[in-house]
Amino acid sequence: MRRLRRCKIVATLGPACVDQQTMIDLYRAGADLFRINMSHCDHAAMRERVQMIRAVEKEVGRPIGILLDLQGPKLRIGEFAEGGVYLTKGAEFTLDLDPAPGNAERVRLPHPEILSALHPGNTLLVDDGKVRLHVIEVSHEKAKAVVDVPGQISNRKGVSLPDTEIPVSSMTEKDRADLDAGLNEGVDWVAVSFVQRPDDIAEVKKVARGRALVMAKIEKPQAINRLDEIMEISDSLMVARGDLGVEMPLEKVPGLQKRMTRMGRRFGKPVVVATQMLESMISAPVPTRAEVSDVATAVFEGADAVMLSAESASGQFPVEAVATMNRIAEEVEKDSVYRAVIEAQRGAAPDPTGADAIAMAARDVAETLELKAVCAWTFSGSTAFRLARERPEPPVLALTPNRATARRLSLVWGVHAVVTRDAHDIDDMAKRACKFSNREGFSQEGDRVIIVAGVPFGTPGATNMVRIAFAGAER
Hints:
The chain is an alpha/beta fold. The protein is built from 17 helices and 21 strands.
């Protein structure tokens, strides 16, 4: 089943799609990869969903990726004697370590690590930024603050600190257990929440040991300050616009989205644009015009993937939401302006390696000769990643003997992966690349394709050869 678009779609699983038939419908509507959100899922439910995805994969005959999204630390205030209070503008309010129920003057903040990191002038956000305070006095036991934006706060609401780097790991004990469970089930990607520094990604990669690729969710201002370092160590980025918009001025988020998609292109790593893309479709069968434009903008920017959260997980129209996103992406990629935008984003020269030079050359040859497909033999997926960075006009057909690689590539722009045995010589490489190009609908007899591979075969990262071949009939 070949997609007619380059941008991929990530669909979050949840109560609206817990049965296998709905997952099949989501895939056929356009979903390329399924997200399991561990904030709302225990290990038993996660295992059941992984098994169903693998069953769907067998049913549709295509590799499907699984993204395990770790919850990350949840910083929350304590409880109030009366369930909540209203904080008026200009009032003083204290957050402390005292376990006694809170009132209109104070509440417990059971996170000494926050108190040790705060300084006068720092901002505190409560309940997704609905209430905003600034710190005027702080010690190891308490922080006194003044209310800048008034509002109601109640038991166990979340706390955010947009201008404070908190000395805690992005991995909680729950995350460690969830990560181990997910890796044991064979998930393909792991998304890390609450990323503040590159060390947060390094910690997860050390546990994963290559069993899954690691995606950094960019949702905190502290991560923006070290974006290049985080991108360098991670395998992918997610632009988590919801949380990012809470901790930063909303008007800055669109520019950051563009910056991150272009950075991903430069590094040759996938970027996923997420949160509220078709939010109204949680309860309506059609999106707003603004939401359509939002999805289209991400596709025009060359994002590797766009993601649905509650729209597919708990909405009333999960299949329709995926189908709508699919239609938007297809239409954008047909637009005459689309290729001009993609070409304009083609920035600096590739890394000075043979593999990167070959990827760029393959793109140039394919477009100059108007070839039907770029066929990449790849074991680890690195060849396909490099080709996707070049954003060639013909589709990229990735041929791999590694099923895990094919599943991971379901997130990567323009890549259609096929699992097959490795080539045993150059003639076999060319013959079977042409065969699969015809079989998958990219070419017909007499068309030409370009083949990229590494010799000796089966050596990861050894991309060193380009060949043009006619996609003749199989003999």
